[in-house]
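Below is one such protein, fold included:
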Amino acid sequence: MNSTIARQEGAILVTTLIILLLLTVLATSSFQSSTMQEKMAAASAQHSIVFQTAESAVEDILNDDANFANASLTSATLDITPGFTATTLATASGTIRQRDLTNIQNGYSIVQNSGFVAYVFEVTGRGRMQRDSTIVSESNVAQGIQWVAPR
């Protein structure tokens, strides 16, 4: 009977080591998965902040009539610094440019050839998040607009 016990003493050690190895692999895999999910959630939150900053820049440019008046006087793209303060993480900028000057199309309540013209503008808002010199996230939002005015 002593010879049977002597042969089985090493089997328990090997079995325990295999179970420990499997538990270690499972724990490492779970840790890597949760770390990856945390990085993806942070990236999604950063992109959302930057997108909202770009949207706010477009809205800020659209809400100031002087931007349209200045853009209609030049054929160049005008860089505009939005009047709102972005978050400490993100910066905002924007541009406005006159794309076209067209006669009013049929279907408008103002009849064509009535002395009015439609200015077509393109407004672009940009949001950017940086750490040091590395761009973490960036978003651009563009919107077209027509402004009807007398000739």
